[in-house]
Amino acid sequence: MFKKFSCLAIVLLSLNLFKTQEKIPFRLTKHNNIIVKTLVNDKDSLHLMFQIAMEDASISPERIRKADHIPFKDEISDGNTVKIGNKKYENVRFFDNELTGHEADGKIGTGIFKDKYFKIDYDNNQFLTYDKEPDLKDYQPMNLYVKNGQFYIIADNVIESKQQEAYFLLQSGYSGGLLYSNEFAEANNLNEKLKITGEKSMKNSAGQIITTKQGVLPFLKLGNIVLKNPSAGFFTGDLKTQHANYFAADVMRRFNWIFEKDRKIVYIKPSKYFNEPYYKIN
Question: Out of the domains of life, which is the source (predicted)?
Fold first, then answer.
């Protein structure tokens, strides 16, 4: 009898360790952006795009829905509440007049997951949060680097059979795959070494030209996981404005992600989108 009780206690303890605290459903758009339905200050129903590269929230000047109950002073609003499903988050800061992704009225960042493990589950279109470490079976750990509230990972870029290590900013707001900094693109001569699939040039009022080029990287290695032929963008021209490498929405969706509470490790495993065709930037 005691043995049966002990086994039952172990099972119940295991279930409690992995118990999900919150489930937040989201919608993934055709542009790879995550949209969350929210109620702000109990009045404004807004569709906010999840932006992993920020902690706070913001409202877009091109929003579809009204945001009349968010009081701004010098384009900042503190002390707001955001309700998502049955959970209400307090003291959320909003910034005004920040552009966002398709189909969204603004953005919301990782601050709602503060002091929690959180999972981006692309297989089931939901966020999951945990107080304790969840089940990590089949997940691969990767070092996570945090700077100004933004998350970076290291990956190896295989260019002409040579591996080039690079830090990538996780950037769920950009619909494409990889986007390289000016420094990385020039140092590795991507204009000559990658297969170019498209380009677009623009000129500003000062006559300076910037050209966006889309190419294909043969392989990207994240630990033991290899992405074949991911899309890779970079800029050429007079303007040098791209200062970080982006690991953007089209490659993010190819994995499920679990972030440790202290944000020092992230765990990844391939999602159902791993082998899907790559998103094309027009």
Answer: Bacteria
- What confidence tens digit (pLDDT) does each residue in 49-58 have? 999 999 999 9
Q: Answer with the residue of higher pLDDT: 210 or 258.
A: 258
- Rounded to the nearest 10°, the torsion over CA 30, 31, 33, 38 is -60
108 near 82, Cβ under 8 Å?
Answer: yes
Other Cβ atoms within 10 Å of 223 Cβ, number? 14
Q: For 145-187, how does the pLDDT look when each residue is reduced to its tens digit (9 = 90+)?
A: 999 999 999 999 999 989 999 999 999 999 999 999 999 999 9
The CA radius of gyration of the chain, in Å to the nearest whole number, is 21
Tokens standing for residue 241: 């404005």
Ramachandran angles phi, psi of 164, nearest 5°: -120, 115
Q: Which H or E run contains 51?
A: none
d(C-alpha 250, C-alpha 254), whole Å: 7
Are the C-beta atoms of residues 84 and 26 closer than 8 Å to each other? no
Please count the CA atoms within 13 angstroms of the CA of 13 that sit on its side-chain side: 6
Instruction: Say how far apart CA 127 and CA 258 lie, in whole Å.
Output: 10
* SS3 category, 277: coil
Secondary-structure percent of the chain, ordered helix, strand, coil, rounded to 5: 10, 45, 40
- Distance of alpha carbon 41 from alpha carbon 1, whole angstroms: 54
H-state helical runs in the chain: 2-17, 182-187, 190-193, 249-252
